[in-house]
Amino acid sequence: MLLKDKVAVIFGGGGAIGGAVARAFAREGARAFVAGRTRSKVEQVARAIVSAGGSAEAAEIDALDEHAINGYIDEVVRKAGRVDITLNAVGLYHVQGRPLAELSLQDYIYPIAVYTRTNFLTAKAVARQMVRQRRGVILTLSTPGSRMSGAGFLGYGVTCGAIETFSRILAGELGPDGVRVVCLRPDAIPEALPTSHARRVFNGFAERAGTTVETMLAQRAGTGTLLRRFPTLAQVADFAAFVACDGAGAMTGAIANLSCGSLVD
């Protein structure tokens, strides 16, 4: 098992990516602490892990609330003794699909403010413990919007660029204390549409194109990726489990390209 006896905290663990990663961590031997805004969703993930023979606990946590996050990490440490791995997979609905002329300042700023806030707060909370331990892995989540250019995703593209820059700089600050930071950059994951905020986000593009989200993504995958497909949840989750393990101990300050070739580094 890649993560035997590790302690992992997954913020946004009730979502499609967060839930898949939590299950992969547990399958690889980690004790998973699954946190999210909706109790029913994180409990469902935790139950699935336990039913499969893994170890998991669910908690309803607002990952934009500094006091709640700090208290939660303190509670995890009291229960498990440490925090080895954390992933911020928090997803929030935001406006996409509108060109600059139709985009309000609030809709532009909102994703930048909330995503950078939650990544800062969760990383700061776990970093205090990881620095004391002299080891740990912090995983963040971005998209190819950080490097692409086009219309309709100005706010979220800037957001993803900020998360990636945050991850690189954080790796430099925490590296001397033995803490690694890696940002995962998958592209659209069609199978996540039923359980994530992505469908509402993509609707803005699909409606302007006069098509469905599914058709739009299928066309984009077929012409805009080298592999002619997008990544699966399992592929993203399995990579997260690997990069969090000791075997990937030489990797930090990296942006992991999981886009199936919609971007080429």
Descriptive account of the structure:
The chain is of the alpha/beta class and 265 residues long. Helices cover 47% and strands 15% of the residues. The protein is built from 8 helices and 7 strands. It has helices at 16-27, 39-51, 66-80, 105-133, 154-174, 198-209, 213-224, 233-243, and strands spanning 7-11, 31-36, 55-60, 85-88, 136-141, 179-186, 254-258. Strands 3-2-1-4-5-6-7 form a 7-stranded parallel beta sheet, with helices on both faces. α5 links the parallel β5 (136-141) and β6. α1 (16-27) packs across α8 (233-243) and α3 (66-80) packs parallel to α4 (105-133). The chain is globular, with a radius of gyration of 18 Å. It starts with 6 loop residues before the first strand and ends in a 7-residue tail after the last strand. The mean pLDDT is 96.
In short:
The protein is α/β, with parallel strands linked by helices.
Topology of helices and strands:
Blueprint: E1 7-11, H1 16-27, E2 31-36, H2 39-51, E3 55-60, H3 66-80, E4 85-88, H4 105-133, E5 136-141, H5 154-174, E6 179-186, H6 198-209, H7 213-224, H8 233-243, E7 254-258
Parallel strand pairs: 1-2, 1-4, 2-3, 4-5, 5-6, 6-7
Helix pairs in contact: 1-2, 1-8, 3-4, 4-5
